[in-house]
Amino acid sequence: MTQTRPRIWLSTPHVMSPKEREYLLDAFDSNWIAPLGPHVDAFEREFAAKVGAKHAVALSSGTAAIHLGLKLLDVNHNDEVIVSSLTFSASANPVTYVGATPVFIDSNRETWNIDPQLLADELADCAKKNKLPKAVIPVDLYGQCADYDAILEICKKYEIPVLEDAAEALGAKYQGENAGLFGKLGAFSFNGNKIITTSGGGMLVTDNEDWAKKVRFWATQARDPAPHYQHSEIGYNYRMSNLCAAVGRGQLLTLDERVVARRANFDYYKKHLGDLPGVTFMPEPKNFFSTHWLTVLTIDPAKFGKSCEEVRLALDAVNIESRPVWKPMHLQPVFSHCRHRGGEVSESFFQNGLCLPSGSDLTSKELDQVIDVIKHESCIA
Prior knowledge:
- This protein is α/β, with parallel strands linked by helices.
- It has helices at about 20-30, 40-50, 60-70, 95, 115-130, 150-160, 210-220, 240-250, 255-275, 300-305, 310-315, 345-350, 365-375, and strands spanning about 55-60, 80-85, 100-105, 135, 165, 175, 175-180, 185-190, 200-205, 280, 290, 295-300, 325, 340, 355.
C-alpha cells in the first residue's frame, strides 16, 4: 500500500510555544473570553511598542483595519481610492464598503510594489480633471515595503493621505524604519498564514490618539457612553477577542526569530535554484529589508523548459503546496469596471510567478524536497 508523504504547506503557523499557552490559559482562567479584555489592551501596547507606533487598535482582521482606516480618512460614496493592483482582494474590498471606487496602479520590477511613476502620472491626470482620490493604499507585498520616499513625496504634493497596507509585512523595514509607519495609518493582518498569527485578527496603527479612540468606538458597535444601549453612529463588530489577543502576545515575542527563519528560507532557495535558467527571485533593493513572508520567484518557460503552472502541478503531485502570484486586481471580474494604469508588469508576475513553501518552521529536508522537484522540472535536469 502506497503511503502518502506528509503535505508541505505554503505557510503554516509556527508551532505554538509555551508562552501562547500560558497567556491563553490565563484568559480562560480569568473567564475573559469576550472581544475585550486585559490581553487585548496588553497586545495593543506591546504591538505599538514593537513597531514604533504611538497607538495600536486590535481588530478582527486586517480587512477591518483598512475599512475603519478609510472611514477615518472620510472616504465616502463617489470618492476614488488608489490601490496597488498586485495584491489580495482584501486591500481593495474595503474601498467598496465605504461606497468608493478603487483605481488600480501597476507594479514596478524593482520592488514588485506600486510604481511611483505611474502613481505620479495618475495623480497629475486627476489634478487636471479636478478630481483627486481621497487616499492611496500602497501594499507591502510578500513581506517587502513599497518605495515610500517616492510615494510620500508624490502624495504630499497633492495632499493625499496614505493608508499603508502592511498586512504581509510585519517585521519588514524601509530605510531602517518599520513597515506600517509610513502613512497616516498602517494596517496589519494576523491571519493563520501570516508571520505571526492570532488565528484571525488585525491591527490598525496610528500616531493620532483621537483616531485610535474613534476606531475602538466604531469597532465595538459605536455604543454611546450611556447606561442603556444607545447609538448615534453606525458601528461594527470588529474588536479582537481576549483569547486571540492572548495568542498574539505570545507570538509577538518570537517575531524576530520568525523573520530570521523566513529570510533563511529565501536564501536557501536562492542558493540552490538561483542559477537555474529562467528562474528569477523577487528582488530586495538596497535599503529595503524584506521578511520574505513568502519566497516568490518567476519562471521564464522558454529558458526553464516548463511553465510556472507545470511546476506548481509537479509540486502538488508529491503533496507540496505552492501558489501562483496574486492575480492583479485590475484582472478580477468583480473590479472589471474600475480604472487602472499600466498592468503589464503585474500581469507578467501573475503569469510567471510562483510562491514556494515558506513557513518559519520548515525543515532543511522539506526545503530540499521542494528544490529537488523544481530542479527535476528544469530543462537542464
